[in-house]
Amino acid sequence: MHPTARLQRLLHQARVTVAAPSRNARTAVVIGRLLALGFLICMVTGVFSHFHQDPLPWMVFPTRPVWLYQFTQGLHVVTGVACIPLLLAKLYAVFPQLLQHPPVRSAAHLVERASIAVFVAASLMQLAIGLLNTYQLFPVFGFSFRLVHYALAWVVVGSLLIHIGVKLPVIAAHWTKRRSGSADDDDDEPPLDTPDELQRLTGVRPTAGMTGRLFAWIDRAPAPAGDDPRVATSRRAFFATVGASTAVLVTFTVGQTLGALNPVNLFAPRKRTFGPQALPVNRTASAAGVLDLAVAPDWTLTVAHGQTREVFPLSRLRALPQHDVVLPIACVEGWSQDAAWRGPRVRDLLDAVGAPPEATVRITSLQQRGGFGVTEMTPEFVRDPLTLVALELNGEVLDLDHGYPARIIAPARPGVLQTKWLSSIEVIA
């Protein structure tokens, strides 16, 4: 037998071996549209978070509701977790299509296969590093998680759009439930046992008898017909398994954001109410390298606008009008928790140095290690009456790990921008 014919026969046999009622175009479309919805949600919420941390000059962010970022980032992480079993289910459903021969049959087929390869590789990488980031393990890769995650998001979405465009006829044909068994078969590989195909591969025009003897194995274990009850049972079991695994992952993770499910938060790295002053901590004072600086008796907060500077020791900050707010700490890893904060308003401190209402400020921390030691706050947050230099948490003086002696707390803002261990606030625009 010609080597090419032998290869095609082996691939075709492998396709028959891995065939299953749940491995068909209808299953791929059903799982695929759920996966596409999940990726769309992750994209929108992820871009929202990215530009919070790296805004363009014209951007203005809403400060109400105060739980907005808490909701969007919690949704981002939970949806990303749900996409893991959905992506594995999608790969399971389309796996036999990887065994086509010839691997590429046309320019359109090349685009399709290339888009699938890019999409699968980027999606697996995106979900993997996203999951590692929730456990704060991304530094093992030695790159900036935020920048790589953002760039990969566009690769995933772009390759997904190309794939959808190429496969649109198949998607349209299998978007709704079909009743006939043959309609579910999306095997578009040229038939192996046609005389024309064999003559092209071997150079010999086979007889019907030769074809039957060579490829009788194709008919040894025919798949059940589409109207066979076993097919429906197998598909229902497959979808039930995918649905149950997704529900379990979400239920045992969302408790880090949704307080009602906190008791069953088994998978997420943070558990609500666990930590100093009943609030979790991401970066400790030790990890930030501020153990001595933050408790120094001569600590002061410097507020500056041009040549005008005011120095606020802790006693002076405490002598200012104190305000009480209840705001969430909402971290990019998906966990969040409401807490009661007390301290002077940021806008009152800026008024002391004559800062204009439209001021953007640079906030500098004492921290010596880690990212976000210097952050910027745009006017909508600066002038918000709920934005405080917090001195107390849940009725007590700030714990050192929560930013003692003073930290920023603002509504609807990522936790990484709620700067701890304050050193200075400077008007920059």
Automatic annotation (TrEMBL):
Residues 180-203 are annotated as: Disordered. The keyword NAD does not apply. Residues 296-428 form the Oxidoreductase molybdopterin-binding domain. Residues 183-196 have a biased composition (Acidic residues). The chain crosses the membrane at residues 30-51, 71-95, 116-135, 147-170. CDD domains: SO_family_Moco. Keywords: Membrane, Transmembrane, Transmembrane helix. InterPro entries: OxRdtase_Mopterin-bd_dom, OxRdtase_Mopterin-bd_sf. It comes from the Bacteria. This is Molybdopterin-dependent oxidoreductase. It comes from Microbacterium awajiense.
